[in-house]
């Protein structure tokens, strides 16, 4: 990889661009300066949008085989440098090197899937004579690109979530402008390098670094940008929904995912899955396990094993292969989590383990009997904190799991197929994992939530559908 970690440039419509004013990128583990990136201005964003208008035309006219070739070459580049990508993810973010390697590998798969989906953008014939007056007509609909996509991405998956925006956008023949999280911009810029290596024509892709309140707002409200694809928190999503105006929106927002563990569950399997789901990436994961509803006959056993494994979780240096969990993304975030947990304890929750902070590090934390009227009982914690609740019946578990404004994913552990289908019918979520925690996803599946957890679906095939529009063609025969 040619890019200099110390002085990074941003990609403006295919051209690597620097600016005098910069943003520091720091390692949350020790606050060391990793790199600087340009502080993009509104003028930079306006230029990117104007060039993207031309880029969108170029992209829409790229033959499908060319789009596929570019996406596969970009995937090849990431694969050839996968360890450098993983190290970058780990250095600028919260993930351990083992977690970062998994994300880098998933990025390769996301780009490969995007190449495959480019060939599957099709339409259908329409029998116009199904309606009176439609006789003598022949036609079809086809799917085509929207134009310019604006993408705003979060810090917790700084490479693969960017790939989930760029890959489908290019597959569908759009231009795309990415505004990555200011705290973790390097992975997005290195992914842009893969596309320049793959000879993506200029104008189709920009990755601009700067504050969301300035260039992000300008991107989302500009009339030439016909779709906003956003991954982030619920409050930011509501703000975008109000500001963006009349354009398509795809939003993957937050959650406080529930997992139901019933008496017939394999407890060892359930505990191992939920521990990983709760503390992966220091709990900064929208489908991470937050609320666990465990049936009373197995509650004591589940609780004992879960707390034991949480205490054994190794917290430490991210680049150490033995480390299970690194720091949160900043000390400010760790203090926020600490305050919310302390508030829950003051409100009557019982702290079973954890609850201690050292700078940006926060221990894996487990509580039980968290009151429903405190912040932790209702909102997304986005940190390494898991809540245990004893339930008497399946009906109680379903009721409690649904008592939230979120509905992204859920987990269920049971050996009873009839029970599984009852929960599938009655849980109001976008995805339910049977005999898995809520924290399971593959990049090909439809991914998104109900209620305040988002709009639309990601997952490559489904993102491509979101990033296309249908055009009807009708011939009146002579």
From TrEMBL:
InterPro entries: Ald_DH/histidinol_DH (IPR016161), Ald_DH_C (IPR016163), Ald_DH_N (IPR016162), Aldehyde_DH_dom (IPR015590), ALDH-related_metabolic_enz (IPR051020). GO terms for molecular function: glyceraldehyde-3-phosphate dehydrogenase (NADP+) (non-phosphorylating) activity. Belongs to the aldehyde dehydrogenase family. It comes from Shouchella xiaoxiensis. Its EC number is 1.2.1.9. It holds the Pfam family Aldedh. The keyword Oxidoreductase applies. Gene3D superfamilies: Aldehyde Dehydrogenase, Chain A, domain 1, Aldehyde Dehydrogenase, Chain A, domain 2. It comes from the Bacteria. This is Glyceraldehyde-3-phosphate dehydrogenase (NADP+). Residues 16-473 form the Aldehyde dehydrogenase domain. It is an enzyme of class 1 (oxidoreductase). Keywords: Oxidoreductase.
């Amino acid at each position: 990889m040619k890019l200099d970690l110390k002085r990074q440039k941003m990609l403006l419509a295919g051209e690597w661009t620097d600016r005098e004013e910069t943003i520091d990128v720091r390692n949350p583990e020790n606050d060391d300066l990793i790199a600087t990136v340009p502080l993009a201005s509104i003028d930079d964003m306006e230029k990117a949008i104007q060039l993207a208008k031309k880029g969108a035309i170029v992209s829409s006219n790229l033959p499908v085989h060319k789009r596929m070739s570019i996406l596969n070459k970009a995937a090849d580049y990431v694969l050839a440098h996968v360890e450098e990508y993983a190290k970058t993810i780990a250095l600028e973010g919260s993930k351990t090197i083992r977690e970062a390697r998994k994300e880098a590998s998933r990025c390769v798969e996301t780009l490969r899937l995007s190449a495959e989906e480019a060939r599957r953008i099709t339409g259908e014939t329409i029998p116009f004579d199904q309606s009176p007056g439609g006789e003598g007509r022949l036609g079809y609909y086809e799917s085509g690109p929207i134009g310019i996509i604006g993408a705003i991405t979060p810090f917790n998956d700084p490479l693969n979530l960017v790939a989930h925006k760029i890959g489908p956008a290019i597959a569908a023949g759009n231009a795309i402008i990415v505004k990555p999280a200011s705290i973790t911009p390097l992975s997005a810029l290195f992914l842009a390098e893969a596309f320049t290596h793959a000879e993506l024509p200029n104008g189709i892709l920009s990755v601009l670094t700067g504050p969301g309140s300035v260039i992000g707002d300008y991107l989302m409200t500009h009339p030439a940008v016909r779709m906003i694809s956003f991954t982030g928190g619920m409050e930011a999503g509501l703000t975008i929904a109000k500001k963006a105006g009349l354009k398509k929106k795809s939003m993957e927002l937050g959650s406080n995912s529930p997992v139901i563990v019933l008496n017939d569950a394999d407890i060892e399997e359930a505990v191992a899955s939920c521990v990983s789901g709760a503390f992966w990436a220091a709990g900064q994961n929208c489908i991470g396990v937050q609320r666990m509803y465990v049936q009373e006959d197995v509650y004591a056993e589940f609780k004992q094993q879960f707390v034991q494994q949480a205490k054994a979780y190794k917290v430490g240096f991210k680049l150490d292969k033995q480390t299970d969990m690194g720091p949160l993304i900043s000390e400010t975030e760790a203090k926020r989590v600490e305050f919310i947990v302390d508030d829950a304890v003051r409100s009557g929750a019982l702290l079973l383990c954890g609850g201690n902070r050292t700078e940006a590090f926060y221990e894996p934390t487990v509580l039980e009997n968290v009151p429903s009227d405190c912040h932790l009982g209702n909102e997304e914690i986005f940190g390494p904190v898991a809540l245990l609740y004893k339930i008497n019946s399946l009906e109680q578990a379903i009721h409690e799991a649904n008592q939230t404004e979120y509905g992204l994913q859920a987990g269920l552990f049971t050996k009873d197929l009839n029970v599984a289908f009852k929960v599938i019918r009655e849980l109001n979520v976008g995805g339910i994992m049977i005999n898995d925690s809520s924290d399971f996803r593959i990049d090909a599946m439809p991914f998104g939530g109900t209620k305040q957890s988002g709009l639309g679906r990601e997952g490559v095939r489904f993102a491509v559908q979101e990033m296309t529009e249908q055009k009807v063609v009708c011939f009146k025969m002579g």
